[in-house]
Amino acid sequence: MILLRPIPQTHQFASDSAWRLIREAGVRTLVRDSYRRLRQADGLTHARSLAFVTVLVMIQAGVGLVGLASVAHSGTITNVVVRALDRVVPGPAGHVLGVAVSQANLSASRHHYVALIIGAGGALVTTTTAMGQVESGLNRLYGIASDRPWLQRYALSALFAVGVGSLVAVSFVCLTFGRDLLMASNGGVVVSGWDVVRWPLGLVLLGCAVTVVFRWTPRRRQPRLSWLALGASIVVLGWATVTSALGWFYSSSSSFGSTYGPLAGFIALLAWCFLSSLTLFFGGAVCAQLEAMRFAHAAQLVDEEPDNEFNGLAHSGARVSIDRWRPNVLSE
Fold first, then answer.
1. The domain containing residue 93 runs over which residues?
2. What DSSP element (H or E) covers 330?
3. What does residue 103 show for φ and ψ, rounded to 5 degrees?
């Protein structure tokens, strides 16, 4: 296993600019070194673990939502959820979730509430576990070998599960259910302005959720939001690209369903969640690599211009000898 050397914190630097640093280094160099950082931090393993938990969250949350709606005798919500999942979640994956939601509605109509309650409560527990997995993955990207103490870690994860989970849920509603909900509540009259606004609104909310995760999840003091914006933007654009590409593939492939049969939906759902999780950790790797570049640049300025704001680095134990635009790697 390769252990990345911890990236010194740079939150005290005030006069430099993330975008200027990116222009000087080059986007290609940043992307290449971020990929190296992701691979050396075992990002694929963290992405697989997060994808598995995400599948559980989606199924449990969908079942819990529809179960509560059925208890309230709101069949409209159930129909909206099923149609939206079939339309937005790529191919057979949406069908798998739609079947689970329909079955939950059937169970609630028969007053079988125990499993629905367990599903709704399990969604919160599973989301908390997912946030703990995100913390572990981001910590390794920054070279942090240990996570927070167990109690503190999962207390913070539970807080993020409610806060960030709410942002993601609202974003998902805007992107998937927005039009159907509007039609259901207005008797088929759709406000055309909302049909346009809901897409950028949903993506912006998703970007805010990712930024919050990057800002407060790692066990360190993060820099200003401008240094995290690029990574968050990559996550949002990457997720949209993955969703669109998989949707096109599943709709265009004539052999995928016949090859995998009943398992096609589960494979599609796992693939979508894995690629989405991988996109999240790659965005985190970009944020981490950008801060490593920032410190390397500051260390070089100490040598070239001793009388500047970074001169404290010359006498700091955090000073490391690194090349200007390369990741810091230490093999165990």
1. 2-331
2. strand 329-331
3. -65, -40
